[in-house]
Amino acid sequence: MEYAEVFREEAVELLEELESGLLELEKDPKDLKLVGRVFRAMHTIKGSGAMFGFDDIANFTHHVETALDLVREGTVPVSKELIDLTLNSRDHISALLAAATGGEAADPERGREIIAALQAITSGASGKSGKSEIKKAPAAEEKTEGKLTHYRIHLQPEKVFFDDGGDVEQILGELRKFGECTVFIHQAADESAEDAESVWEILLTTKHDENSVRDVFIFAESSCKVVITPLAQEGKSDFLEHRKLGEILVARGEIDQDDLLKVLSAQKPLGEMLVDAHLVSRTKVEAALAEQNLVNKQIAVKSGKGVDSIRVASDKLDRLINLVGEMVVTQARLTDVSALLGDMPALVEPVEEVERLTTELRDCVLNIRMLPIGTTFSKFRRLVRDLSAELGKEVQMETEGAETELDKNVIDQLGDPLVHLIRNCLDHGIEKPEVRIAAGKPAQGTIKLAASHSGANVVIEVSDDGRGLDVAQIKQKGIEKGLIKVDEEISDLDILNIIFAPGLSTATEVTSVSGRGVGMDVVKNTIEDLKGSVHISKSVPGQGTTIMIMLPLTLAIIDGLLVKVSNTHFVLPLGQVEECVELSQDDIDHFHGRHVLSVRDQLVPYVRLRDFFEIGGERPELEQMVIVHNNGLRNGLVLDDVIGEHQTVLKSLGWAYRNAAGLSGATILGNGEVALIIDVPRVIKCAQQEEAALTEKVH
């Protein structure tokens, strides 16, 4: 991976961290920990930008870092103006980053305006004698800045580091800015002379904490082995204790204790003896001696922290998941073959073991692609902050279930629908402060994002405590658009869900935020493309509205219900299935032109898959009906036979069938046959439209 791409990916994460820290700092402007977190993110972007040749980013970020440094010192107070400017700086850095990696050029005038505004704040504060009061972190969590700390750094770049333009000297230059730096270079012990990679052993004495030191290597970790070991800190009880050379080399792993004891029987200086015995190189001994002289103490050397995460290209992960999917299909075929061969104990046990391991591997691989939805939720705090200010409203955002995990591919496509819903909550739902106070409500409104697991699905609720939806107004709009009839009997909940129809808007005026009737239908289409559903679950006048989104955990491999119509196999997503009931000729009934079945005193409308997909053959006397939930409502799908649960690997349809109504993909069964995966919401929607059209013709 080229360093420009590595820098871009890391910088995007740092910018998200920066934005999150700034929004928290706005709520608690005296928290020193938050100030340090924001400063470190900005400092890392600046240092790494300079290291990899992103000079525009480094130069601009330097000015912002200077202002934040004054905040750390207590010279400049945290104000709304400073937060606004730093957030604008974050946006400008993002634009510079996009321009540097092939995007649209950033506006240089915008950057100059931000710098001038920052300089006005810092120059105004520099003449003041007083310092702002900043709350210190608890003593146990205080940073070590201000105390000298010694670090041993092992840096071993791989060949790709240099191929992509990496420069160790630039890294060393950053470290030298931190304090006194002693460098030794030697050959990696596990490499042949012709393929040897150089290793840099660095001894650093600095007042900076370990996180700041690690940040210097943040963009090099993917192609360098980096081990940072704190050796001693000024003021600790063992700071001045002596440490022997042999102990240092053993702790480093350069020699083992047995070798050391053998050599100690000689009378030469220990370092000379180890070199003569060809157990360690002279440069390594010199490096260890320098450490001994520098540290001059005896503590247990902490081993460098192992890498607990690695960055993997998403296409590689997709390839792995596809291979696991093929393995699942092959395992299903193996199980079918085993069943055909009959009672063969020697075969049954290994087949069951393969099935168990395949299931475990599937779950493990799919879990790799799972991300906490909180990473998406946190991005909306800035949207709520800026948009509420633009609309003259006071709004806070709350989250619940941020740790709930969802497939990365689903999360990536979930952002736009949630933006639409949040903007609607802010514009149409939450009232202005004076209106809320007059209604006996707090001046500040609340938007809440909540996520939770429900079987094989994730439920996301977007709610507000605003004015609620006006059922009468929505019904009138629906009549005007021809979506419902004047005398049609329809529940309030069904009326509310008309807002997802294209072009329908209840806004009395068009604003820069919403009101053009574009958005809610896009939300529904996007969610349905993700094999999910969205509906209004609750709306109370004067109290607020809740919108519920239900999404599958993953789009790669799902648990399905295998069913059959004539000789055609179908798969229904098991997460949408509620129950299965029998349907005889005597049970058939009609209600307002729709086929319905009474199930425990509740009328359930149903669709015959045989008729919907135009499959020939005679219907059996006793049909099966699978009841599914869709947009909060129950519907039935009538078919010939229910075969059972099936572990389903989703395959996309060929271009000729991609637009086939009611199908979302296909899968291969254990016997090699193809089963079609039913898109439940689309089947029900199309069937309802056909029934409505037929009813219209009759009348």
Descriptive report:
The chain is α+β, with helices and mostly antiparallel strands. The chain has five domains: 3-141, HPT domain (Four Helix Bundle (Hemerythrin (Met), subunit A)), CATH 1.20.120; 149-295, ACT domain (Alpha-Beta Plaits, 2-Layer Sandwich); 315-369; 372-552, Heat Shock Protein 90 (2-Layer Sandwich); 557-698, CheA-289, Domain 4 (OB fold (Dihydrolipoamide Acetyltransferase, E2P)), CATH 2.40.50.180. Helix content is 44%, strand content 23%. It has a six-stranded mixed beta sheet. Strands 6-8-9-11-10 form a five-stranded mixed beta sheet. Helix 17 runs antiparallel to helix 21 (520-529).
Architecture blueprint of SSEs:
Layout (H helix, E strand, L loop, with lengths): L2 H25 L4 H20 L3 H19 L6 H21 L7 H19 L22 E9 L1 H5 L4 H11 E9 L10 E9 L3 H6 L8 E10 L11 H8 L4 H7 L6 H7 L5 H14 L18 H28 L3 H24 L1 E3 L1 H4 L2 H11 L4 E6 L4 E3 H22 L3 H6 L6 E10 L2 E8 L6 H10 L11 H5 L23 H10 L3 E8 L3 E9 L4 E9 L2 E6 L3 E8 L4 E3 L2 E6 L2 E7 H4 L9 E9 L2 E7 L1 E9 L13 E6 L5 E5 L1 H19 L1
Parallel strand pairs: 6-8, 13-22, 17-19
Antiparallel strand pairs: 1-3, 1-4, 2-3, 5-7, 8-9, 9-11, 10-11, 12-13, 12-20, 14-18, 15-16, 16-17, 18-19, 21-22
Shape: flat
What count of helical segments does DSSP give? 23
Q: What's the level 1 CATH class of the largest domain? A: Alpha Beta
Structure class: alpha+beta
Contiguous low-pLDDT stretches (5 residues minimum) are 127-145, 235-242, 297-307
- Separation of termini? 66 Å
Helix content: 40-55%
Radius of gyration: 33 Å
The main sheet orders its strands as 14-18-19-17-16-15
Q: Give the averaged pLDDT, no decimals.
A: 80
CATH topology-level name of the largest domain: Heat Shock Protein 90
Percent strand: 15-25%
CATH level-4 homologous superfamily of the largest domain = Histidine kinase-like ATPase, C-terminal domain
Number of domains: 5
How many extended strands?
Answer: 22
CATH arch. level architecture of the largest domain: 2-Layer Sandwich
Instruction: Give the biggest sheet.
Output: 6 strands, mixed
